[in-house]
Amino acid sequence: MKVILVCDNLLERNAATPILELWADLFPDSPLYTLAHQVGKVLGPLEQRKITSTFLSRFCKTHQDFKKLSFLAPGAMKSLVIPADTNLVLSVSQGFAHHIEIPKNTLHFSYLYSFTAIEGSLSLPMRLFKSFINQWQKKKFEHIDYLWVSSKFLKDQIPFPSHVLYPFFKYSDYANVSFSQEEKKYYIVRSCDLNQHELALLKAAANKCKVELFFVDEDHCAGDWAYFFSQAKAFLDFSQGPSYPLALAALYCQTPLALRELPLTIELFDQSLGPKISHFSEENLIVLFKQLEGFYSHFPKNKLMARALQNTETRFAEETKKIIEGWNKIQKLRNYADRKDEIRL
After folding, report:
1. Is 325 exposed, middle or buried (0-12, 13-18, 19+ CB in 10 A)?
2. How far apart are CA 98 and CA 107, in angstroms?
3. Going from the N-terminus, what domains does the chain have, and what CATH number goes with each?
């Protein structure tokens, strides 16, 4: 079976990259089509395959550049031509890749991750074209044979049949983690999830509650994160989606969570996994720390790990393989029926 992978861009590792890598493992000979690519920006096996990109690669060196020029995406997408003998196209989309033109008799399965690719862009062209791009992103789903979405929240935004398949964390990266029996003292926080005002509020609340915060950035391998989580009382994940792989990894490492109260976090994580904060204020953060102190003393370790194991790369691969194999059988039956009709004629 000839398979082609499609994504929005290859300019940095992001939440969609692990899905693309998983599908690349399932179909090791599949080439990759994308709107923009810079060699070496996405280290790993994806760089080792044939990659076809558009003229946007000449102008987009970073993901920020891509956001500024994404008003050119509809035209650029038309230049990506899928060979007519392709059996299956697998696209991972954050608003762009699912628009790829598909030849007749080629199946298209798409995983829609989010519509967040152009949020925050302040370039003058994007101010003019953002409304158009937002509308364009939410079209052309009728040409997709099978559509996965990353959440029920996203499913409700699309007027087209879709199937929720939650993103995963890479269980294989954390399978050998050792759980510390020592007393845990600090709360781990990703500084990149907070603006300066929120950071100041968090530090003030922590000082008043006399709790220790340990700030880290995203540039750490899974081994580092596993160690951080194993030493922490809780992981304060104040990111705003569209996925929470580090939160799942923390749960696997038996570390409770504190999250923003958002539609997506309410959907993914119930209160038994840790408290949520609805509004960032010093008073609310003090309440949050008090809840965490009480929660830490009796949290259900096995339940935390069991929740994480619901969303591993193995389960994700099994689900996608099951759907692809089922459709492949249907396609073969259709081809067989067409051949019989031709013989009768």
Report:
1. exposed
2. 12
3. 3-168 (3.40.50), 171-308 (3.40.50.2300)
Nearest residue to 116 (alpha-carbon basis) of 147, 154, 73: 154
Phi and psi for 311 in degrees, rounded to 5?
A: -130, 70
3-state secondary structure the chain: CCEEEEEEEECCCCCCHHHHHHHHHHCCCCCEEEEEECCCCCCCHHHHCCEECCHHHHCCCCHHHHHHCHHHHHHHHCCCCCCCCCCEEEEEECCCHHHCCCCCCCEEEEEECCCCCCCCCCCHHHHHHHHHHHHHHCCCHHHCCEEEECCHHHHCCCCCCCEECCCCECHHHHCCCCCCCCCCCEEEEEHHHCCHHHHHHHHHHHHHHCCEEEEECCCCCHHHHHHHHHHEEEEEECCCCCCCHHHHHHHHCCCCEEEECCHHHHHHCCHHHCCEECCCCHHHHHHHHHHHHHHHCCCCHHHHHHHHCCCEHHHHHHHHHHHHHHHHHHHHHHHHHHHHHHHHC
Alpha-carbon separation of residue 276 from 125, 214, 258 (angstroms)? 38, 19, 6
Mean pLDDT per segment of 10 residues, for the chain of length 345 residues?
A: 93 89 93 93 86 94 87 91 94 91 92 71 64 74 90 89 93 78 81 90 94 85 86 90 89 91 92 90 94 74 88 94 83 54 46
Q: What is the pLDDT of residue 231?
A: 86
3-class SS letters over 148-168: EECCHHHHCCCCCCCEECCCC
CB 312 within 8 A of CB 169: yes
**pLDDT of amino acid 344:** 42
Q: How far apart are CA 264 and CA 17, in angstroms?
A: 20
pLDDT, residue 141, reads 84
Q: What token pair was written down for 188?
A: 């781990």
pLDDT at 343: 46
Q: Cα-flanking dihedrals φ and ψ of residue 234, to 5°?
A: -160, 160
Q: Residue 131: what pLDDT?
A: 74
